[in-house]
């Protein structure tokens, strides 16, 4: 695992320590109610509307279809000020991209991030884009990685089309949402979902190959990793018990990620071109 991978594993452990997902004793809210229905409903084979309008990182009004340029599309929804997993998911995409040589067809896609927060504007999008262009250090990304904001109606319509179920929690001022990538064909048809916060290069390349051919894949994992935190009162027994439980769960996840990463140190390069 490289330095970024270790950093993100520690972030996950930090999330476990800081964000146990149970209510404080005496609270009236049920975490089960808050996250119920927050999933990716996989709409394989369905199109997204090219006429939906958003604002790009330069403040220009754009249609979603303007990014359907003959390449597969990797679509992500979340929000720029997200304190949890949105950044980790984008980092995972960037890290996967770095595993392919510059000339690989698996780098040849349009990346679109759409904020679900109508309060965020193009300045937040521009800051995020600048951050990832510096990280990638790959000139074509300037024209192929797009960070958008939009109105509540357009965002909700896009979310509905791709099966992205989310909810705003006014108490924590967070958006509760699933984490993952939606892969579209060059014409904007949904062909694959890569859920979670780690996208193995072989799976990523396979998904892009299916999208390039316009062939829907099979329904992937149905267990969603949710981006949300709700903390019990510090100092309570529940607080410390849940810290221990969450640490155990996340360390187990970390072990799985380490195992996957170790197997990818000497990958079968056949996936580099799909």
Structure description:
The protein is of the alpha+beta class and 274 residues long. The protein has one domain (3-18, 30-230): Glutaredoxin. The chain has helices spanning 3-18, 31-35, 86-98, 122-136, 141-144, 152-162, 201-213, 237-263; strands spanning 53-55, 61-63, 73-78, 110-115, 145-148, 167-169, 174-178, 180-184, 190-195, 226-227. The strands form three sheets. Strands 5-4-3-8-9 form a five-stranded mixed beta sheet, with helices on both faces. It has a three-stranded antiparallel beta sheet with strand order 6-7-10, with no helix packed on it. Strands 1-2 form a two-stranded antiparallel ribbon. A hairpin with a 5-residue loop joins strand 1 and strand 2 (61-63). Helix 1 packs antiparallel against helix 8 (237-263). It is globular. Residues 6-26 and 235-242 have low confidence and may be disordered.
Please outline the helices and strands.
Layout: H1 3-18, H2 31-35, E1 53-55, E2 61-63, E3 73-78, H3 86-98, E4 110-115, H4 122-136, H5 141-144, E5 145-148, H6 152-162, E6 167-169, E7 174-178, E8 180-184, E9 190-195, H7 201-213, E10 226-227, H8 237-263
Parallel strand pairs: 3-4, 4-5
Antiparallel strand pairs: 1-2, 3-8, 6-7, 7-10, 8-9
Helix pairs in contact: 1-8
């Amino acid at each position: 695992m490289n330095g970024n991978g270790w950093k993100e594993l520690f972030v996950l452990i930090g999330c476990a320590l800081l964000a146990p997902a149970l209510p404080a004793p005496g609270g009236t809210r049920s975490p089960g109610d808050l996250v119920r229905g927050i999933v990716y409903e996989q709409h394989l084979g369905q199109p997204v509307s090219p006429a939906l309008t958003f604002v790009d990182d330069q403040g220009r009004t754009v249609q979603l279809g303007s990014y359907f340029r003959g390449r597969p599309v990797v679509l992500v929804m979340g929000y720029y000020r997200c304190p949890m997993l949105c950044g980790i998911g984008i980092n995972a995409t960037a890290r996967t991209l770095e595993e392919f040589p510059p000339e690989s067809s698996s780098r040849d896609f349009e990346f679109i991030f759409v904020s679900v927060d109508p309060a965020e504007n193009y300045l937040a999008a521009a800051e995020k884009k600048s951050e990832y262009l510096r990280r990638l250090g790959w000139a074509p990304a300037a024209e192929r990685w797009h960070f958008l904001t939009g109105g509540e109606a357009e965002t909700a319509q896009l979310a509905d089309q791709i099966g992205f179920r989310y909810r705003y929690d006014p108490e924590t001022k967070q958006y509760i949402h699933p984490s993952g990538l939606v892969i579209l064909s060059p014409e904007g048809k949904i062909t694959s979902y890569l859920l979670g916060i780690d996208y193995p290069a072989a799976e990523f390349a396979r998904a892009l190959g299916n999208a390039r051919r316009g062939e829907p894949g099979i329904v992937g994992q149905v267990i969603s990793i949710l981006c949300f935190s709700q903390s019990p009162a510090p100092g309570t027994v529940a607080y410390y018990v849940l810290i221990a439980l969450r640490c155990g769960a996340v360390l187990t996840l970390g072990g799985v990620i380490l195992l996957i990463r170790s197997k990818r140190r000497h990958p079968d390069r056949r996936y580099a071109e799909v």
